[in-house]
Amino acid sequence: MPWYKSGTVSVVLNSNAVIGADTAFIANSRVGDAFRGPDGGWYEVTNIAGDTAMSISPNYLGATNAAGAYALAPMQGYVKDSADALRALVNQFGEQLAALTDTDGLSEGATNKYFTETRVRTALLSGLVLTEAEPVVEADSVLAAAGKLQAQVTGRLPLAGGKMTGAMNEATPVALASAATVDIGGAASNTVTISGTSTVTSLGTVAAGAVRTVRFLGSLLLTHSAASLILPTGASIATAANDTAVFLSLGGGNWFCLEYNRASGKALAKDFSYDRTNLVGPVGDLAGIPNGAAFDSGTINATRYVKLADGTLFQYKTVTIGGGTVANGNVFKSLSYDMGYLAISPVGDWVVASYGISQSSGGGWAGQQTFGAAGTWGTWAAYTSTAATGSITISLVGIGRWKL
């Protein structure tokens, strides 16, 4: 080994202490090594306290030096010890080491066997305990940890049944906006809310078996389709705020509505859509589907009307005309009178008829003199068999449709 000379040392006359600067005594010297001091003298290393402190013997004989050059020379003592230890090792294990080119050259003992893959796969779990469900800790063996985990699973979910002691909460509902396709299958939650009023024809594509619970926040139309959106009653559904539904994916973009619950609590089936709370009221229509009451009636423009959910419209009006009648050939005719506006402008065919007149001197009938503009009754006059001097009342009725 080379001598070690890095750094400098501080020595004091008649002292056994050697203090180093920029030295590493521990890794580069041993007790028993020779120390040549700044005075050129040789001393024995008797103790190494650290990388910068050691003791020597005899005490330093030279003049005090705060930063002198030095050298540490290895002696043969510990080299001989190493050689002796190596010789003993060779004598004991030399034959085995000579044959040990790889593990195949070292035979198994009678009880200590190699941990081969085959033996690992067929090893018995002797000592496995399945009744201790304590938490696994670092000090556990693999066998003990496996037993604890199995006991924990069995205790929490027994095959014969059991109960959960805590809540199983689902993810926060995902909010989606209505559109032709609302991808509920791609939502990161099993619960979805749909807002807006756009008609929905598809719920997106996801693997068969996926289930989503949907809450509708407003009125929109779910379009029934045997290929994409199978709905109860086989018809489209007009939703209302806070209606809910459960949908099952059949795969390939087709969804089946397992259940639909109206916020009103009413049945979805058409035959049972109305009750005494909504049988009479505003009649409406959404994409050809009634979405209001069954019957609507009222008075607009002095005309009474009855409006049915299927589109049928009845209107009637009674007007009293003053001035009596004048001779009109063999009959007498009243003044012509503009009956004014209808309550509701009809669409399609429209039939108007008079169901009678009322006057003090006898009966008669009313006839239309001119056709009015759309949404009006037109002009009418009364015809009587005798002259009338007082007021005459004409009653009209119209039958048509308010939607096609």
From TrEMBL:
* Protein name, as recorded: Uncharacterized protein
**Which species is this record about?**
Pseudomonas frederiksbergensis
